Amino acid sequence: MENRSTESVMLGQKVKMPVALAPVGLTGMQWADGKILAARAAEKVGVPVIPVPAPATGDTRADTRGRFLRDLRISVTDRCNFRCTYCMPKSVFGKEYKFLPETELLSFEEISRLTRLFVACGVEKIRLTGGEPLLRKNLQILIAMLAVLKTPDGQPLDLTLTTNASLLSRKAKSLKAAGLQRVTVSLDSLDEAVFRAMNDVDFAVADVLEGIDAAHDAGFAPIKINMVVKKGVNDQDIVGMARRFKGSGHIVRFIEFMDVGSSNGWRMNEVVPSAEIVRRISAELPLIAAEPNYPGEVAGRWAYADGSGEIGVISSVTQAFCSTCTRARLSTDGQLYTCLFAQSGYDLRGLTRSGQSDGQIAEAIGLIWNQRADRYSESRTAATSRTKKIEMSYIGG
Fold first, then answer.
1. 69 C-beta neighbours (distance < 10 Å), count
2. 8 A C-beta contact, residue 174 and residue 212
3. Are 20 and 10 in contact (CB under 8 A)?
4. Which of 43, 244, 292, 349 could, after both became Cys, cross-link 297 (CB 3.0–4.6 A)?
5. How far apart are CA 129 and CA 289, in angstroms?
């Protein structure tokens, strides 16, 4: 079975950049011949080439739509112990699926170095994802390495993690002690049969709730709880989920079912629009619209009218937020993706392992972001949903 078919784009310029940066399909000798061959190779594989010359990097850099780089999501493993039907269905990610070997994973030192360079380019928030990030051995060591990083003006990073909570009850304290600031937990239903069917590994709701309680006891607050809503599967549980966590201090975020990757069989008629989600909840638990916490916040905020907390809705399908997206994604093996729905990435691991300086790597990151023009959700159709895209388990949600 194929592992993945998405191309990785090597970065570079004529001679100034080394052989390791050559576009896919070129030998080192061909790359030394210059930029024209690079452009031809890119045409052949259908992926972009980084332009030259390279302007200075820094916080003033925006992409082609004026969006600044503020958030970095780092996938620390492509493995997961769940087989959620909307993310890693067993029909694709079965026993024969070939996950990345350990030698291809970014080391903690490589992740820390790249993160430091992303911070120099404007990143303020880091989210560790997977797969299931808590499957990565000794993750607390990486968290401690990232927790000491500061923005150029000396501010600490917002360091967060998304998990299915299967291992959270035993690891919450060590994660907090290492410097993790917040956690987000995926929980798609409180109904036992529905949740077990959706995670497809017979994992119990009670075990996720135990993880949430352990995180709360360890000092994480507020805890965000993500529910991917799929019509006819778990949408009957929307109000129950809201009611269960109302007044708890936790924030449930309802996510429209998205066409991420190429394996989840997405269809538009299975999407429950966020407006419908808000309507259903507000009919029983009155809501009022709330202002975003910061520009570019993914979730639309709705507060309970009685002051007992809030919910969020993530409307990537029906209310695209591409115009304010400030997120980049770093895959488990060091590929940089500028959109959740990307078809190709850029090989930063190749840079780190070929002796490039911090300045050269930061310059490459800045160039990639500077030419970014992604707007997938604004142009989504039934046809685009069938295009080959990178899997969410590889770059995180």
1. 26
2. no
3. yes
4. 292
5. 29
Q: What pLDDT does 386 receive?
A: 58
Per-residue pLDDT tens digits for 290-302: 999 988 788 999 9
Closest CA to 183 of 145, 139, 229, 244: 139
Long-range contacts at 316-321 (CB < 8 A, ≥ 24 apart): 316/255, 316/256, 316/258, 316/377, 317/256, 317/257, 317/258, 317/268, 317/271, 317/273, 317/377, 317/380, 318/256, 318/271, 318/273, 318/274, 318/275, 319/274, 320/375, 320/377, 320/378, 320/380, 321/296, 321/377
Distance of CA 313 to the CA centre of its chain: 17
SS3 content of the chain, % helix, strand, coil (to 5): 35, 15, 50
For 207-217, write each residue's pLDDT tens digit: 999 999 999 99
Instruction: Decide: pTM greater than 0.70.
Output: yes
Structure tokens at 347: 């090989």
CA distance 128 to 74: 5
Q: Which H or E element spans position 129?
A: strand 125-129
294 within 8 A of 309, measured Cβ to Cβ: no
Residue 248 bridge partners (DSSP): none
CA distance 12 to 300: 39
The residues with which 347 forms a beta bridge, in sequence order, are 335
Q: For 82-109, how does the pLDDT look when each residue is reduced to its tens digit (9 = 90+)? A: 998 887 888 888 888 899 999 999 999 9
Q: HSE (CB half, 13 Å, CA atoms) of 302?
A: 21
Per-residue model confidence as pLDDT tens digits over 19-36: 333 333 323 333 233 333
